[in-house]
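Service request form, structural biology core

Requester: graduate student, group of Dr. S.
Request type: structure prediction, single chain
Budget code: on file
Notes: please return the result as structure tokens.

Sequence provided:
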Amino acid sequence: MMHIDRRTTIKWVLAVAASASMPVSAAAKGYGTDPDMQRVYAPGELWPLTLTAQLRGTAAALCDVIVPADAHSPSASSVGVVDFIDEWISAPYPRQQQDRALVLFGLEWIDAEARRRYSRSFATLGNAEQAAMCEHICYLPEAPASVVEAAQFFARYRDLTAAGFYTTPVGHEDLQYVGNVALANFAGPTREALAAVGLSDISRD
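Core staff response, request fulfilled:
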């Protein structure tokens, strides 16, 4: 049975950053200028949202398979990751519209597969059953030919979930990220850190 721990998820989000999978989009033709980034918008204020109540339930359950609650942090769905994904796939830009088709397919596929296997929706399955369903689609290079498209969905949904979670304050804390925080002073790198990159002969005075 697949077990997804937070260390694995951190590796996933680092892969997201390395692949630069979320470029800043220019304004889409016919949709005017980009939103004012100085404002805080309510969900659905910029454009109509996509996910139905049923799809949101499936989306939340799958988010929590990928980033479950643990002793240090809450689950992905509890910090608004489903709202982030819904906004993302609803945006009128080419990359987001491409993701929209894949995400809608995948959420419908995994719910239909849950009903086929267990006669229940994915959101109502137990943790072990949800993990078992994801096991054969969680690694695209080894996915059976019959579920390649579902594995493509899972790979993209995993990246969106990780990106959504780890860009929240809770995600920053979970990663122990300390950027964008004002410091009263900065002593500079330690001698050990300098030595690790071959700069141990640089004076710190």
